UniProtKB/TrEMBL annotation:
Its main location: membrane. This is Major facilitator superfamily (MFS) profile domain-containing protein. GO terms for cellular component: membrane. GO terms for molecular function: symporter activity. InterPro entries: MFS, MFS_Na/Anion_cotransporter, MFS_trans_sf.
Length: 424
């Protein structure tokens, strides 16, 4: 029995990718509202010696007097809470829904929601802060409302696997089930192969580049608004537009790097491993150079600073579309969700550490105080790129593949499925 590849357009697996996209979009509407809102919540002129009338006025306008260290602790508090909610749903979901030849495309579509949500939040947040008194309050309320609406849609249309989906066609179900190997999976109580994981050079290289990249990305996502307003002295209304444009660049590179990488693999132009190495190099060494550029950008070099921000965010998208984020499902498909949750915990800790370091270094938000941080993160990004090149891989580890050929008369044999797989 040969199962031909059903078109991706208008398919159930595309519907799942769009639902994941909306999930990340809503998540980042809620995640990024404080980093953009804090630029208009802080009153820079108030002092503790202000008279009672001034204090009353400030409270009515919902503005606050927080020191630089307090602001960094608030921005880092998100990542502290994020540590305790690491439920690796998305990676586990794609291990059920994505066949190898479509993995980059589907995952990149889903993760594009992170950058679209960030772009929308930055753009709307800048406008609300500029034109509406206490406009940041409406940003918090609206993002919460969208979260409830998305939950209803997810419960209505989503399913854990093709085998559990109510409206998927039999042809598409067989194609995904055979291609992803889920027809042959049996629920077993297996021990986690910790020793093999710790001895796996490709996995250690992947974890290292993931944590180091997200260390930088989380920190600068949290502080991008502050850098533009306080270091480069760009008006708040323009910071929202610039940040939105930057994250649209991230969205574009994340989406199309995944699609192009899959096309290169299908046509035999590049192996999966080489596409992952290329993407991880761009997403690491590009931001490394941007940190050096930030070091020299002052308030008089606004054009250079804006171009650097756009370049930084564009390069960051490659990791999501065809780099380290996708790579977990390549090399450890059986444990991808579990390991990704652990790694994301360390990445979140790095987000907290970044803001704590900034709270110590930044006595006030000036370029001279920011420069040590730019040097630090240029080194971080350089190490993220260097560690992956010699040891990175997209070949699945034998001990991390799903058990195959479980006895079942109704199985679709893997050798009869026309997947046109190209190995690294």
């Amino acid at each position: 029995m040969v199962v031909n590849r059903p078109p991706l357009r208008f398919s159930t697996r595309m519907c799942m990718a769009l639902l994941v996209l909306m999930a990340f979009l809503v998540l980042h509407l809620q995640r990024i509202n404080l980093p953009i809102s804090i630029t208009c919540m802080i009153n820079k002129t108030v002092s503790y010696e202000a008279n009672p009338k001034q204090i009353t006025l400030l409270l009515k306008r919902k503005q606050y007097h927080w020191s630089e260290s307090n602001q960094q602790l608030l921005l880092g508090a998100y990542w502290a809470g994020y540590i305790f909610t690491q439920i690796p749903v998305t990676m586990t979901l794609w291990s059920q829904w994505a066949v190898p030849e479509e993995r980059g495309t589907l995952i990149s579509i889903g993760y594009c929601g992170t950058h679209l949500g960030t772009a929308i939040t930055m753009f709307i947040g800048g406008i609300l802060c500029r034109f509406i008194t206490s406009g940041w309050l409406y940003l918090f309320l609206s993002s919460s409302l969208f979260g409830f609406l998305w939950c209803l849609l997810w419960y209505w249309k989503a399913a854990d696997s093709p085998l559990e989906h109510k409206t998927i066609s039999d042809k598409e179900k067989q194609y995904i089930s055979a291609g992803a190997g889920i027809m042959n999976r049996r629920k077993t109580n297996q021990n986690i192969p910790w020793k093999k994981m710790l001895a796996s050079k490709p996995l250690i290289a992947l974890i290292s580049t993931d944590v180091l990249n997200l260390f930088g990305f989380f920190f600068f996502t949290s502080n991008l608004g502050k850098i533009m307003v306080e270091v480069h002295q760009i008006p708040v209304i323009y910071t929202g537009i610039i940040a939105a444009a930057g994250f649209l660049c991230t969205w574009f590179t994340a989406l199309f790097s995944g699609i192009i990488a899959d096309k290169f693999v299908r046509k035999g132009i590049m192996s999966i491993t080489n596409t992952r190495k290329l993407s991880n190099s761009i997403t690491s060494f590009g931001p490394c150079l941007c940190m050096i550029s930030f070091y020299f950008c002052d308030e008089k070099q606004k054009v250079l600073s804006i171009l650097t921000i756009l370049t930084y965010l564009a390069c960051s998208g490659f990791g999501y579309g065809s780099g380290y984020v996708v790579n977990f499902n390549d090399i450890i498909p059986m444990y991808s969700g579990f390991v990704f949750g652990i790694v994301n915990t360390f990445s979140s800790l790095a987000g907290v550490w970044g803001n704590m370091i900034a709270a110590i270094v930044l006595k006030e938000s000036t370029l001279s105080n920011w420069r040590p941080l730019f040097i630090l993160f240029s080194i971080v990004y350089f190490l993220a790129g260097v560690v992956y090149l010699p040891w990175g891989s997209a070949l699945p580890e034998k001990w991390a593949e799903f058990p195959a050929n479980a006895p079942n008369d109704e199985e679709v044999p893997m050798q009869d499925v026309n997947l046109n797989e190209v190995h690294a």
